Structures are given as structure tokens and as C-alpha cells.
């Protein structure tokens, strides 16, 4: 049985490990430090939810933020924005990611949001398929440019 819970300081180590799996370019120690800062500077502008088994194993997470700046494809403000979501491989395809997204959506609704947004790189077909399965619709495709000065 999987329960969706708000992230707490007690779940910090497990959450940091999962973040390091999703974003391996950042060390687990750095993720842990970022999460310690998250709890020290906690505000109503961000939230995180974890998926936990009945044995206490944390097997997934979703992080969200409240955005008031322009969010591509959205017409309202604020917008709840899915910053990251991850479920351990053996627990995928069990509706855990959907339940994590629903927890984020409910959090956003409770803060007056009317839209739920996210993003994914153009080449990340797995993420794009996931978003479609969660009910997101693609609104734009963007290529960013830069010029060194």
C-alpha cells in the first residue's frame, strides 16, 4: 500500500536520494543541503509530496512551486508548477505518479490556482508521454538562444 504524504524533515534523506536519481548531475549531498534549506526557509510558495510504502520506504516524490511570473501557455496567475517528479523503477505504472500529481493539484487549488503547468525538454519523449498521460496538454515548443557579450 502506498500513501502520499507531505515532505517533512524526517524524510529528507530518502527524498535527497530520489532527487539524486532524477537529477544525477547534482550530488546527493548537495540535494540534501538544498532540502535542508527548503525546510529552513519554507514558504507557502513551494511544496513537496512523497509516496511512502506501508513499511516506510519512500519510493517517489513530486515538487511544486507557485509561480506568479509568466508561465508559457497559461493565462492566469498564480500557476502551480510541477518542478520535478520521480518514482523508483519497481514502483512505476502503479498510479503513484498520478497520485503525486493530484496532491500537487489539490495544493495548488487550495492556493487559488486555476492552472497546473510543467515543462520537459523537447527530446525527453518519456517525460512528454508522462505529461500527456497525466492530462497535461502541450501548449508551446520553445528554442532558447544566447549570444555571448
Distance between the termini: 55 Å
Strand residues, percent: 15-25%
Q: What is Rg?
A: 16 Å
Tell me the series of helices and strands, N- to C-terminal: EHHEEEHEH
Main sheet characteristics? 5 strands, mixed
Helical content, roughly?
25-40%
Total count of helical runs of at least 4 residues:
4
List keywords for this structure.
alpha+beta; 23% strand; five-stranded mixed β-sheet; globular; 149 residues
Overview of this protein structure:
With 149 residues, this protein is an alpha+beta fold. A five-stranded mixed beta sheet has the order 1-2-3-4-5. A hairpin with a 4-residue loop joins strand 2 and strand 3. Helix 1 crosses helix 2. The N and C termini lie far apart (55 Å).
Question: Would you kindly provide a brief summary of this structure?
Answer:
With 149 residues, the protein is of the alpha+beta class.
